[in-house]
Amino acid sequence: MSETPPAEPLAAQAAAQASAARAAQRALGSAPPAARTRALERLAELLGEREQALLAANAKDLVAAERDQLAGPLLKRLGLTSAKLATLREGVSALAAGSDPLGKPLRKTELDEGLVLTQVTSPLGVLLVIFESRPDAVIQIGSLALRTGNAVLLKGGSEALHSNRALVACLQDALRDAGLPAEAVVGVEGRAAVGELLEREHDIDLVIPRGSGELVRSIQQSTRIPVLGHAEGVCHLYLDAAADPEMARRLAVDGKCDYPAACNATETLLVHEAFLGQLGPVGAALRDAGVRLHADERAQAALSAAKVECELAQPEVWGREWGDLVLAVATVDSIEDAIAWVHRHGSGHTDAIVTEDPAAAERFLSAVDSASVFVNASTRFADGFRYGLGAEVGISTGRIHARGPVGADGLLTTRWLLRGQGQAAGDYGPGKRPFTHRALELS
Amino acid sequence: MSETPPAEPLAAQAAAQASAARAAQRALGSAPPAARTRALERLAELLGEREQALLAANAKDLVAAERDQLAGPLLKRLGLTSAKLATLREGVSALAAGSDPLGKPLRKTELDEGLVLTQVTSPLGVLLVIFESRPDAVIQIGSLALRTGNAVLLKGGSEALHSNRALVACLQDALRDAGLPAEAVVGVEGRAAVGELLEREHDIDLVIPRGSGELVRSIQQSTRIPVLGHAEGVCHLYLDAAADPEMARRLAVDGKCDYPAACNATETLLVHEAFLGQLGPVGAALRDAGVRLHADERAQAALSAAKVECELAQPEVWGREWGDLVLAVATVDSIEDAIAWVHRHGSGHTDAIVTEDPAAAERFLSAVDSASVFVNASTRFADGFRYGLGAEVGISTGRIHARGPVGADGLLTTRWLLRGQGQAAGDYGPGKRPFTHRALELS
User: Taking CA atoms, what residue in B is nearest to A418?
Assistant: First the structure.
């Protein structure tokens, strides 16, 4: 990290860049769609032309990471390859070929003859994206910001310093080559700079942390800027009295084992007491998949009867995000108890019911207050790609702006455009001209 | 205020009520639509049945206010009358008759055969609404919260204590009579209670301050909970080189004089230098309407030539929200200068251009980064009722969640409901089952 300048100048520089990003964003967002498309096309080209230089920059980071004994999975995420770059180019080209999301009319109302109001999509503004390790994120997020007319400040992990610099340069050069302001993309380096930026609520509209729950929580607690993300994914799978036993087995194993570190992995199994007699095979399948179980007394008895070993659950296992092949198992007396349990111990991310009873299914769907609520499907489906949203910005457990898996829509806001012929507001009202308020077709 | 208990118990009570409101909200939001409709119908009935008691409670507040020498306009807003109550009943009945906004599908996608995702509207959660003086707001906001399935903590001004208590009781009794939890509506009293609530970001999802910019600003600065509102309305009217002089005159007078205290009143007139020769009649009309002008040197010269007196503008007049019959007048050399001026000095609320040049109109509409952007219409049109949104929750200058005039939609979020037949996520992916991602008709 000897190439990193001292913290204070970096922080001051980041603040100045954030201010400049606002002006650049306005130029980017109000440019013709073709200019943003051209920048994306140019970005795909540059990623091809500079492949060797990008891999060389990445190799520097990899050498340093091996020297610093970075953990295996992190090392794997840090590495760029020709194949990863090809995937990135494809993603960028798809965005370039896709339709422009800006200026799309969402609502059109005639207020009076010759006075037409249109609500249109607009860029959100200036984004601060904080991510760890994976340099691919620079291009994935940078290209999405570009398509949606947003400026973006990108703070990657210091272990990917050289890779990130080289990728940020591709984004900036692509903007420049398309006649757009390169200042709309900023590479941020150093913790002091992030601290400085998190205080600049007038320059930055949204913070998107991509990484561990710890990272998200620490950012949420240190800024007044809205944060899009989820600190925790404590997902429940509820096996109803009317659950199909084979389906229960399959969804418990998939929910827990498909990718245990993911935020949409199942962390607690709730079991209706009437299902306890059929819990054995579910527990056995989980055990065979290498899952350690922490069960309450009733569930433990049911599992023991089926010769499935488990630990007796201590109070701290409820609502815990294991992120590993460990599962808590609790018994409930009714679907209402299950719903109350989810509200008390869950994180509002994703919760699922397994049942053959349509009334139970609809009750669960209507009552559970989580971003994603499933019937007879694995909690692991909660994901922007699986939902068909295209690129995923993140998964939000917040209730404001965007909730659940967030696609490009989460990077947009709206403006209200009114086209008149000289109308004064004082001419309308009781005893004066009435409004027509006629909904018009969106063109 | 002798009836107000000491601050600390009030604060503790408010905190407990906020926690209880979350549970009550979940019951309210997942109840059948007919139950919420019944509660609204009952509210309209109660407002009629209790008219004498409501007016008597209000009379107590009015006596105290006169004793405390409350200013005339505040006194007028504080007063309830039979006519005001009738208007409130009409509004509540209209909401009861209207369609239920919850569970409305916004997007429906088949992920695979027998695996259907629906994004549906849901209540936002628990709202804290802080307002001044006008007790009507209790019913307007309370009924809107009820229709949208939200719990609401209502903090009115202490000068309306008795009126607010009586109105909150109507809301609570209406809920109870409809078999819904009365705890979904809470009357909050005392500053200490508000301070306590503003720290409870896990119990409260959105703060809506309705009142002065000072109130909004102070709340924004003292909470991490998202705040919906606008601290300032610094609206510009730009007279383009191609402005129609008569229209310029009319829109300047309406924008400034129709209701100078409103947030959508015009505060600065921007004048293209090519229009200066026609500024005289605009200035004369403003002067005749009682407006004091602060103009820059070029505008002052143009006004003087037309025998319109004005003060020479000092730097602090730019970007100032007068809230009164005062207007700043600045000269710009081009439409681009006007746009840059709006971005530098405006508050992103509402800005308008007067022009007969379609290219200038479209440039202004696409480039000005404000919640509302108008062509040839008064800035005073920026208003939820005028936009046809029905009840107005507030006007937001924030870019997250809702922007500009906000109707009932601003009190909603979404949930993602997935109905499957036992699908596991591990069965999908490269080399396995593909997703269909087929858009389905909204039913």
Answer: B374
CA neighbor of A119 nearest in space, from B394, B237, B404: B404
How would you classify the pairing of strands A326-332 and B394-396?
unpaired
Nearest to B390 by CA among B199, B147, B135: B147
Shortest CA distance from B415: residue in chain A: A371
Nearest-Cα distance to chain A for B64, in Å, is 33
Q: How far apart are CA A149 and CA A178, in angstroms?
A: 14
Domain A7-220 CATH class label: alpha beta
Sort out which chain B residues have CB atoms less than 8 A from A423's CB and list them: 376-378, 381
Residue A400 to residue B253, Cβ atoms within 8 A? no
| Alpha-carbon distance A14 to nearest alpha carbon in chain B (angstroms) | 20
Per-residue pLDDT of chain B (443 residues; tens, 9 = 90+): 445 556 678 788 888 999 999 999 999 999 999 999 999 999 999 999 999 999 999 999 999 999 998 888 788 889 999 999 999 999 999 999 999 999 999 999 999 999 999 999 999 999 999 998 689 999 999 999 999 999 999 999 999 999 999 999 999 999 999 999 999 999 999 989 999 999 998 899 999 998 888 888 899 888 989 999 887 899 999 999 999 999 999 999 999 999 999 999 999 999 999 999 999 999 999 999 999 999 999 999 999 999 999 999 999 999 999 999 999 999 999 999 999 999 999 999 999 999 999 999 999 999 999 999 999 999 999 999 999 988 788 899 999 999 999 988 999 999 999 999 999 999 998 899 999 999 999 97
Domain spans in chain B, listed from the N-terminal domain onward? 7-102+123-220, 235-381
Q: Which CATH number fits domain B235-381: 3.40.309.10, 1.10.260.40, 2.40.50.140, 3.30.70.330?
A: 3.40.309.10
Q: What sign does the CA torsion over A87, A91, A92, A94 have?
A: positive
- Give the nearest chain A residue to B220 (CA atoms): A224
| A162: nearest Cα among A31, A250, A261, A63 | A63
Contact assignment for A124 to B419 by CB distance below 8 Å: no
List the single best residue of B351, B369, B428 to mutate versus A (max A Cβ within 10 A). Answer: B369
Of B103, B382, B416, the CB nearest to A404: B416
The distance of B200 to chain A (nearest Cα, Å) reads: 13
Instruction: Compute the distance between CA of residue A215 and CA of residue A130 in angstroms, rounded to an integer.
Output: 9
Contact (CB<8Å) A377/B254 = no
Closest CA to A33 of A114, A152, A174, A146: A146
Nearest to A376 among B366, B373, B421 (CB): B421
Q: Where are any strands of DSSP class E within B182-255?
A: 185-188, 206-210, 235-239
Q: In whole angstroms, what is the distance from residue A109 CA to residue A115 CA?
A: 9
Cβ contact, residue pair A399, B374, below 8 Å? no
User: How many A-B residue pairs are in contact by the CB < 8 A criterion?
Assistant: 220
Contact A341, A364 (CB under 8 A): no
Alpha-carbon span B230 to B214, nearest angstrom: 10
CATH topology for B7-102+123-220? Aldehyde Dehydrogenase; Chain A, domain 1 (3.40.605)
Q: Which residues of B touch A254 (CB under 8 A)?
A: 424-427
A205 contact residues in B (CB cutoff 8 A): 399-400
Pair type for strands B126-131 and B206-210: parallel
Evaluate whether ipTM surpasses 0.95: no
CA distance B400 to chain A (A): 6
Strand order in the sheet with A206-210: A185-188, A151-155, A126-131, A206-210
Q: What is the DSSP string of A112-165?
A: ETTEEEEEEEEE--EEEEEE-S-THHHHHHHHHHHHTT-EEEEE--GGGHHHHH
C-alpha to C-alpha distance for B272 and A141, rounded to whole angstroms: 40
Residues of A in Cβ contact (< 8 Å) with B253: 424
**Chain B residue with the nearest C-alpha to that of A243:** B422
